[in-house]
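Lecture notes, unit on binding sites. The following record was shown on slide 14. It pairs a sequence with zinc ion.
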Amino acid sequence: MTTLRTLAWTLAATAAFSALTLSGGAPSPASHDPADLVIHNAKVHTVDPTRPEAQALAIVGDRIRAVGSEEEIRAWIAPGTRVLDARGATVLPGFNDSHVHFVDGSLGLSQVQLGDATSRQEFTRRVAAYARGLQKGQWVLGGGWDHEKFPGATMPTREWIDQVTPDNPVWLDRYDGHMGLANSAALALAGVDRNTPDPPGGTILHDAEGNPTGALKDAAAGLVQRKIPPPSDEQLTRAVRAGLDEARRVGLTSVQDISHAQEMRVYQKLLAAGELTARFYCITPIQQYESPARAGITAGFGNDWIRTGALKGFADGSLGSTTALFFEPYNDAPATRGLFNAMMLPEGHMLQMAQPADAAGLQIAIHAIGDRAIHEILTIYEEVARRNGAATARGRRWRIEHVQHLRPSDYEAFARLGVVASMQPYHAIDDGRWAEKRIGHERAKSSYAWRSLLDHGARLAFGTDWNVAPLDPLLGLYAAVTRATLDGKNPQGWIPEQKITLAEAIEAYTLGSAYAEFTDTQKGSITPGKLADIVILDADLFRIPAEKIKDAKVVKTIVGGQIVFSAD
Ligand SMILES: [Zn+2]
């Protein structure tokens, strides 16, 4: 992207730099190495309060070395310095997604995609087209469907797909991962019939005749999922390569991944091969807390590329599946208040895992969506703090994942207990289309309560929950700033008083996420000394109308000083 203008600036700067070298009066160039990379003509939004705005920055090796005006940064240019002209657009710290299912998202790139299916016909057509390419007995996998998008919000049943998949078992996740649809072949493999009882923490949906419809909620999904052969290392590696490609394209330089052992091995293999272009924080299942604890692993253990030491647990399900746990019943399903996840049962079980895990120095991150689930986890954290005593010097940085619908009386507990609210703004503009049908307006007022949480001193970390939502961080910023639901029905924002500013949303998606993984001294802002993880956009985000933020594009993604993505 060497425009004439860039070239002229480069030459002038190089001349100035040489003159300094010879004159000897000005700061000696030997006092610092010349930059490997300089970005200039930029609106650098640093997320660093000591210098919030700048025009240019210099990178040496994998670190940011200087941030300043055009004048100041010019001194870092020497022959061999690569100079990028940002053309007056916003430059930000690389985005850090605080909650992804990287392998699911990556595998999903090559599975049946139902995220934008809006009718039974379309649903069936896509499954049929996919199944045609498979051999007999191979699984049809994928999903992303949302019955709220079908006429009358009709729940899909196995009849939708049985005829086009007579020889292939099918498992299609709902977009939130808390429900899925099996065909008859898959139900038969799993031995699920009209007499199968609901497992604890799960529900088998039945039709009017009492036969399973194929839709299985939460723990019941495991009945079928257990029968799906796991992907090979080779398949996973191929998928993760595609996922990394997607991450580079959208400006993600770090992801916090809900990981399992096989996935962590794949990331390490890609790192050794020099192919890892995003930094991973691997959050492993809390049920297995004894393994890292026995190995002496504590929160944030690892290197600049792969860290671990955090544990993921579940308190409840999801709003869409009416399994998020509330104090009061659902407005549209008065017989239920939602479900505790099986990890919360019997009572005290989560505490029995959380206390020793915390004592071992591991970080705990628990999924909680309904107000009761969130409250229960806050109560458990408080009890762990009481039993284990004051936090270590480092602080625990407990997390609650999602924090979607909470009671105003619980806002203050986040700051008091030091709990990071790890949230996904895109869910608000997606679920916001129908959430009030489920929980009414009063409970909606403290849903996705970013403004209230910040005002009560809480720390926010933003992400997507990919594959549940699209991976693009600009969609998240757009959602946080506008709260404009995807159906176009709330152009001024759904519960507009909970909007936050663009600067606050960017901070949550960069420094906030870094804080949530104990790396805020290493990344999350454009600060000299930090890792050179940077994105250059094609627009000045602070100048364009908020509704245009979602249309902005990443022009360059830089990780550790290396340009890993260029739009041109
Ligand atoms: Zn998730």
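Take-home: The mean pLDDT is 93.
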